[in-house]
Design goal:
429 residues, mainly alpha, Growth Hormone, Chain: A, 2 domains, 20 helices, globular, transmembrane, transmembrane helix
Length: 429
């Protein structure tokens, strides 16, 4: 491609405009592809969100509370638990971009299966609910494969210093598109019925298939052909010998509070009832808006110092969740839909910072040979933490949503100084 004015190619200028980073010529095309594919994947995630979209869909199909309650455990356990078994395969794959393409395509096919089952259920098929849960379980395994392969694919196609910006830009684009769907439901432009929601899930399947095709277009640095796939003993040794990895996992475990908190904000707001569709729309919009305004900024900050960004996001989360807990204790609520949306907005900004910074930190702290293994170890450990936290949900019913949010705020407050003990992963010299 001939250089444009100023000696920069068209791909470099477009990549720079999309990410705000000065990207080398060999990385510019891949950066643009990553932004496009990851944006499609993030929009698909929003359209198949178990805590909101699938929970509403199963309820509309007449599912029991127990079946609806299985959605999040299936999603989290399926996405995290298999990673120790999948990691050696991903680490030995010659090209991580092809593995990510397979993972995206698999998620797309599973989403289409969920949509088909939902449509059949709307027509009276009694097995629809369990078919949806089975398809979600399969989707979650492909999600585990995507989580393992994407960081390595990004590292092999985009240089250090621009990776966080790629993720941040995609997060903002995906959120901007998903907010349109939330707005259409909130104001009644789209009827809130099972067939419409099933159509959105089918659209998510198409987006994942497109993302998989796009991933195949990457030009990737090949892995050495003589690399062997390490087994479970090597994984265990990496955890025992990796002091930095252990510290990172501890910080990330404490910051799972940012992912677990939103349902308790909904409960404390009084908007958790199925009839509170107006409140639900406001919360969906607040969540999407937080990703739009903060995803890119957090990504750029992570490229400068992911450990400082983790600390800052943890401190913000402690303030937001602590403020929500105090407001709930003193007033019995969060100030109505607007107040609840405000607290969720702040909490989700912190969550976006945690998510972006921890991904960038893990990517940049790891060498090519151990990146997939470190990802698997970290994700599997966090999967166990999330399962344990899910088992404590019964205690939250006794203590109350306010006390639970206070505990989450304390965890985030502890994570902030611990994040400062991590090594500077962006060090280039």
């Amino acid at each position: 491609m001939p250089p444009s004015t100023g000696g920069r190619s068209t791909a470099q200028r477009l990549a720079g405009a999309a990410t705000g980073a000065d990207i080398a010529p060999e990385s510019a095309r891949s950066a643009l592809l990553h932004v496009a594919c990851l944006s499609a994947s993030k929009l698909a995630d929003a359209l198949v969100e178990p805590k909101l979209v699938l929970a509403w869909l199963l309820t509309a199909l007449g599912a029991s509370a127990g079946a609806v309650g299985l959605l999040t455990p299936i999603r989290e356990a399926g996405a995290l638990a298999p990673q120790l078994l999948l990691a050696p395969r991903v680490a030995a794959a010659p090209r991580s971009t092809r593995v990510w393409a397979l993972a995206a395509a698999g998620q797309g096919l599973c989403a289409l299966a969920i949509a088909a089952a939902a449509l059949a259920g709307a027509s009276g098929w009694s097995g629809a609910v369990w078919a949806i849960l089975a398809a979600l379980a399969a989707l979650s395994v492909f999600r585990a494969l995507a989580s393992l392969s994407f960081k390595d694919a990004l590292a092999r196609t985009v240089e250090k210093g621009a990776r966080g910006a790629v993720g941040g830009a995609a997060a903002s684009v995906g959120a901007a598109l998903s907010i349109g769907f939330a707005l259409a439901l909130a104001v009644g432009w789209l009827p809130l019925e099972a067939r419409v929601v099933a159509g959105a899930v089918a659209a998510a399947g198409g987006l994942w298939l497109l993302a998989g095709l796009g991933a195949l277009a990457h030009v990737e640095r090949p892995r050495p052909t003589n690399s062997d796939a390490p087994g479970l003993p090597a994984l265990a040794r990496a955890l025992v010998e990796g002091a930095e990895l252990r510290r990172f996992i501890l910080v990330r475990a404490l910051l799972t509070a940012t992912a677990l908190a939103p349902p308790y904000l909904v409960l404390l707001s009084g908007g958790g009832a199925a009839s509170g569709l107006g409140d639900l729309g406001a919360l969906m919009l607040a969540s999407a808006a937080a990703a739009i305004v903060s995803g890119y900024v957090w990504g750029r900050l992570s490229d400068r110092s992911s450990r400082l960004t983790l600390a800052a996001a943890a401190a913000l989360a402690a303030l937001a969740l602590g403020g929500a807990a105090w407001t709930g204790w003193t007033t019995g609520g969060l100030g109505g839909p607007i107040g609840a949306a405000g607290f969720l907005f702040a909490a989700q900004i912190a969550y976006e910072g945690v998510r972006g910074a921890r991904k960038t930190h893990l990517t940049d702290m790891s060498d090519d040979d151990d990146r997939a293994l470190n990802t698997a170890l970290s994700n599997t450990a966090i999967g166990l933490v999330l399962l344990a936290a899910g088992g404590l949900a019964a205690l939250a019913e006794i203590a109350g949503a306010g006390a639970t949010l206070a505990a989450f705020a304390a965890a985030c407050a502890l994570a902030a100084p611990l994040a400062l003990t991590l090594d500077e992963a962006q060090r280039t010299g």
